[in-house]
Design a protein that fits this description.
With about 350 residues, the protein is an alpha+beta fold. It is about 30% helix and about 25% strand.
């Protein structure tokens, strides 16, 4: 396969810089909302979830997300029973980042054609995801939109989105504001690509039926469909322990730059990375994707980070390892505000820019 040029994610159809500007424009418009009464929002825009004050003691954590172009792989393979897990994961993993307990999710399913068998498959994934996260799905919406949704192949097109709510005591919200230089970053292994960067992955690995030796017998399609890990039970247990949890970060698109969404004026140096799953090395090789872009698009083997005092790192790992074997200390917080350093493979990034060679 011919190597793809630098900026392959944009060539695959996703311009992250443009998307960032679009989000900023949307947020600016929403910031002008005037309800005629004081805002109930507790956290500023840009965190993984926001919290709406219910009363003087309790808040409601809110987040919404979808599965993205992973659904294309699902459609092509005719396997719809796992992407519901991804939908739950992408939402609950964000809600728990503010220290909230996710309690319920509403799903929105848009389809090209309402097929009972396909809906049953989607529902099976949603059920499994809800059970893994310990949340309810009390309702949702099915929209039949043949004029908008086009499948791969037609008429099997569909889209999945969700809205998640959680409960949190206002004095227990985790924003990252308490993170200090010297704190330890604990990494939890990803299950693979999760639900970000699939446009780039499919561009690099277009034959979903191929079984490259690097994937250990699995096909490309099977590997790309591996469901997103759900970290809720591990983090719930950590939050309920004596360990002081200072920061929680869901590592999605933009990779470890997600750490700078935490509120403290610190940076992060990650010098003990978790093992990189073979699928990422295959994408880089086949697509000619530079390490800088790989770390801007993918989780690279670490799907979630918890920041705790250095003296509590061993206890935190012990608590979460039964849920996610391979959990380990991957780095530390630094005094270099807004800077993320990756000792391996020798990259550095700032809050306002992507990764570059150190």
């Amino acid at each position: 396969m011919a190597a793809m040029a630098e900026g392959t994610y944009a060539r695959a159809g996703v311009n992250q810089s443009q998307a960032g500007s679009a989000v900023a424009s949307l947020v600016a418009a929403l910031a002008a909302i005037d309800t005629g009464r004081p805002s109930r929002a507790v956290i500023g825009s840009g965190h993984y979830a926001n919290v709406i004050r219910l009363d003087d003691r309790r808040g409601l954590a809110l987040s919404c997300d979808g599965v993205g172009s992973k659904l294309v792989v699902s459609e092509v393979l005719g396997r719809l029973d796992t992407v519901g897990i991804d939908l739950v994961a992408m939402n609950v993993n964000d809600v728990i980042c503010v220290g909230a307990d996710p309690v319920a999710l509403l799903d929105y399913v848009a389809v090209e054609e309402a097929d009972p068998e396909r809906m049953a498959q989607i529902g099976e994934g949603l059920r499994r995801g809800a059970e893994l996260a310990g949340v309810e799905i009390p309702g949702g919406e099915l929209a039949v939109l043949p004029d908008l949704i086009q499948g791969h192949p037609s008429p099997g097109g569909f889209d999945l989105a969700g809205f998640c709510v959680g409960l949190v005591e206002l004095d227990s919200i985790v924003t990252g504001a308490l993170v200090e230089p010297g704190d330890t970053v604990i990494g939890l292994p990803s299950s693979g690509i999760h639900s970000n960067g699939l446009s780039l992955a499919r561009a690099a690995l277009p034959d979903l039926q191929e079984r490259p030796p690097a994937l250990g017998g699995a096909s490309v399609g099977e590997t790309l469909l591996e469901p997103t890990a759900i970290y809720v039970r591990a983090v719930r247990e950590l939050l309920a322990s004596d360990v002081e949890v200072r920061g929680l970060a869901h590592i999605t698109g933009e990779g470890f730059l997600n750490l700078v969404r935490l509120e403290a004026d610190v940076g992060y140096r990650l010098d003990s990375p978790l093992p990189v799953p073979p699928v990422f090395e295959l994408i880089a090789e086949r697509g000619g994707v530079a390490p800088t872009e790989m770390h801007e698009v993918f989780n690279m083997g670490c799907g979630f980070c918890c920041v705790v005092p250095a003296g509590s790192a061993a206890a935190a790992v012990e608590i979460m390892s039964p849920h996610h074997p391979g959990a380990a200390a991957v780095g530390v917080a630094t005094a270099d505000a807004g800077v993320v350093e990756l000792s391996v493979p020798g990259l550095v990034a700032t809050r306002d820019g992507g990764f570059r060679p150190a």
